[in-house]
Write a structure and sequence with these properties.
By secondary structure, this protein is mainly beta. It has one helix and nine strands; from the N terminus they run ββββββββαβ. It is globular and about 45 Å long.
Length: 127
């Protein structure tokens, strides 16, 4: 199961990194998130992310997501971004064999944030 998002973006110079942050509702009852993958511009999906409760960049005095949400940070080379339209696919890696069970493992995607920076962002593990 997957969702595709199309974003107009500008190509970035070599040597930069882009962090794509998927903001999700925390699973009910404090359960674990199912495997969530990210694909940019038809690349094979990556399931290599860091769990975080921090915003990519502070907004005034705000530094963390609300307690009901959690984030997954994916770091990629900025060269992944194309000039013009870019496709971001969020893949749900539910492991259940039955389609109905996979749908029950669904997650609520609240937002997608992107940050282009000279180096990979150091983030703390979320709670």
């Amino acid at each position: 199961m997957q969702r595709r998002f199309r974003l107009p973006m500008c190509a970035e110079p070599a040597g930069l990194h882009v962090t794509v942050q998927l903001v999700l509702e925390r699973p009910a009852g404090g359960g674990a998130l199912p495997p969530i993958g990210l694909s940019v511009n038809d690349a094979w999906p990556s399931f290599d992310s860091i769990l975080s409760d921090e915003l990519l960049e502070p907004t005034g005095s705000l530094t963390h997501h609300v307690p009901e949400n959690v984030a997954l940070n994916f770091t990629l080379p900025a060269a992944t971004i194309r000039e013009g339209w870019n496709d971001i696919v969020v893949a749900h890696g539910g492991m259940a064999a039955d389609l109905a069970d996979r749908r029950r493992q669904g997650v609520m995607l609240v937002g997608i944030e992107l940050l282009v920076a000279p180096t990979c962002r150091s983030v703390k593990n979320g709670t």
